[in-house]
Amino acid sequence: MTHLLVVPTYNGLQDLKRLVSSLPSLSNLFVIDSSSKDGTAQYLNDMNIDHIIIPTSEFNHGGTRQRALVERPGYDIYVFMTQDAYLAESVAIQNLIAPFEDIHVGAVCGNQLPHNDAMPIGEHARVFNYPDISSTKSLADIPKLGIKTAFMSNSFAAYRTTALQSVGGFPDHVILGEDMYVAAKMLMSQWKISYQGNAKCHHSHDYSLIEEGKRYFDIGVFLSRENWIQDYFGSAGGEGLRYVKSEIRFLSRRGKYWIPNAIARNIIKMLSFKLGKKEKYLPTRLKSYLSMHKRFWKV
To answer: Which run of H or of E encompasses 78?
Structure first.
């Protein structure tokens, strides 16, 4: 099966160079750059990397990725990475697309390892959410996993083109979560979603407390506006409490002085998420201030 790796970029030249250097080949790489001002366009030209440049104002997490299918049609599989991720092994993409041998698999999520210099809190988030054990999920897993059944991350993921098209492609109206949106639609259409533990990339974030709050505000906005996801799949059950307990155990070994920060961070995440869920009652300027994705609000 043919595949194309798609990477949206914006002012991340050094990250992009790291990603490119991790790839075994550049022949199946397509970059969509949102008018970066850091020399990205010149680098792409110098490296002879297939790319297009779009206005910054046109970027949208879902719409920009969907544009890849229009600009470069004809591939059986579309693989997506973010500019701040890079392959941990040269075979990672081949491992990622292996589950498509099952004709019922519509999408595959890869394993994300923390960056080598990640702080303990960011490191734990990857250890908790991305195990080494592979699995395949279907609607039958909803009673056990709830909304986690539709877990997906476009920092390293692959989609069967026919499955993606069958659910209408990536949405262009969401603030984020285009990956979960599509995964949920696929599951509801009887496709399976795979997680491939041996398809490994490096990708993690060391968010500040404020950045963490903004991110979870946006997640709340997404799930508020796409309330059909929780209506259909339910909540994550006791996942939040399990995460906190796991984090405290992890930090107890890696550095107990991080625990107060983690507690404060989880409180901020919870409050920001709840505020995001109530965003329809907030003025647009305030929502823009609270959000990580300010262009979404077009203030």
So the answer is: strand 77-81
